[in-house]
Design goal:
This protein is of the alpha/beta class. The chain contains seven helices and seven strands; from the N terminus they run αααβαβαββαβαββ. It has a seven-stranded mixed beta sheet, with helices on both faces. Bound molecules: S-adenosylmethionine.
């Protein structure tokens, strides 16, 4: 069998996004972040119901995992990350408040350890720009979502600013929407979370 050759163009354009350094994980739970990114506002926008099973993809130390777990008192959160250190930090928080409806799972870069059609919603908060292949991450979310399941994508605007990831890693809002639509999602709403960050809500 002959192997498909990678063209020079593919090699040049291949994404090599940086991954959030777990050493800096406290930044993700800081008071300043809580002031600029209102968790309650996000929770009130996403079409979440208290009995849903929700995947928090790229959960980090649990900024959204914990509020999701508290809200879903008849449902559960599956919090996934490729970095064990992030999951350990999330576990510390969970243990402290005795939240038992959150499952932490180490995932691979391009394959979620979840069954087809097994979740009602997926939150991908500032993780899709870190994915080596955002399209695969979207396809994986779609595979795991039930029919009519929801997807919420939080991201940084693609422009120079003091904080956040490097410009070349960021995904422009229109591009992300197009990517999600090409993956088979239907666009529902978009929201400005603050001057630097946006959220897209989609349906399978
Ligand atoms: C900037 S942090 C955001 C964490 C959390 N969602 C939040 O908003 O606080 C991005 C996280 O995505 C994780 N990540 C990066 N690529 C991933 C992938 N392909 N699959 C799952 N998680 C990934 C990183 O390890 C990191 O914990």
């Amino acid at each position: 069998m002959t192997r498909a050759k990678t063209s020079k163009k593919d090699q040049v354009t291949k994404r090599m996004p940086h991954k959030f350094d777990p050493e800096n994980k406290d930044l993700l739970l800081s008071a300043e972040r809580r002031r600029s990114l209102d968790i309650h506002r996000v929770m009130s926008i996403i079409p979440i119901l208290r009995y849903h099973t929700v995947a928090d993809i790229g959960c980090g130390p649990g900024y959204f995992t914990i509020p999701l777990g508290k809200y879903l008192f008849d449902g559960k959160v599956i919090a996934l990350d490729i970095q064990q250190e992030m999951l350990d930090a999330a576990k510390k928080q969970l243990d402290r408040i005795h939240l038992t409806n959150v499952e932490l799972m180490l995932t691979e870069e391009a394959k979620l350890p979840l069954e087809n059609n097994s979740i009602d919603g997926a939150l991908v908060s500032f993780a899709i720009h870190e994915a080596d292949d955002p399209k695969t991450m979207l396809a994986e979310a779609k595979r795991c979502l039930r029919a009519d399941g929801w997807l919420a994508l939080l991201e940084w605007h693609k422009r120079e600013m003091e904080s956040g990831p490097p410009l070349e890693d960021r995904i422009d809002e229109a591009d992300l929407r197009q990517m999600a639509e090409e993956a088979g999602f239907r666009h529902l709403t978009r929201h400005s979370m603050n001057k630097d960050q946006y959220m897209l809500v989609m349906h399978k």
